[in-house]
Amino acid sequence: MSLVFSEIEDPPVERTPVHLLTDILIIGILSVIPGAKGWEDMENYGLSKYDWLEPFLALPEGIPSADTFPRVFEPINPKVFERWFRRWVESIVEAPGAQVIPIDGKTLKGSYDREQGKSALHLVSAWSSEHRLVLGQVKEDDKSME
Predict the structure, then answer these.
(1) I want to staple 22 with a disulfide (CB 3.0 to 4.6 A). Which of 2, 56, 77, 142 is the partner?
(2) Does the reported pTM lie above 0.85?
(3) Is the sign of the CA dihedral 29, 34, 36, 41 positive or negative?
(4) Residue 43 and residue 60 in contact, taking contact as beta carbons nearer than 8 Å
(5) Of the candidates 1, 3, 138, 8, which has an alpha carbon nearest to the alpha carbon of residue 78?
(6) For the segment 89-137, what is each residue's pLDDT rounded down to a tens digit?
């Protein structure tokens, strides 16, 4: 995983960086899988999983603080990040044979805004049952899920 993300450009820092970019990205991604919703959740995940993370991350200064995550994630171009994330997912879901990939559409409850005339958010997801991993997710404009 760290090899795939090593090609993402490290945002410039005005002081000496104390955490590796790949460590921050990996902790951020891994924390979102079980439900992290913000920067503090990412830090808390890292702290609670330190013993598990330590063998495969460098963590020269331990777990990054909640203030570090937005400084690193916000300047990254989302399209570049998505490309590298997809590359990582593809690297772990290499299938020499056929694999069933369930595709499912969901409408997120409470995501509509009547006052602004915005309809609910509709998502279509592809899921790897074998790896228990979402392979991709796309927002649809209407409920047709085409």
Answers:
(1) 2
(2) no
(3) negative
(4) no
(5) 8
(6) 777 666 555 567 788 888 888 777 778 777 888 888 888 877 778 888 8
Residues 31-45 pLDDT 10s: 998 889 999 999 999
Which two structure tokens, joined as six digits, stand for 37?
């919703």
In this structure, what token pair is assigned to residue 27? 């902790």
- Token couple for 114: 């009547």
Give dist(CA 86, CA 5) in Å, integer: 11
Compute the distance between CA of residue 78 and CA of residue 45 in angstroms, rounded to an integer.
Answer: 23
> Tokens for 93?
């879901």
DSSP per-residue string spanning 13-80: -SS---S-HHHHHHHHHHHHTTT--SHHHHHHHHHHTHHHHTTTS--BTBSPPTTHHHHHHTTS-HHH
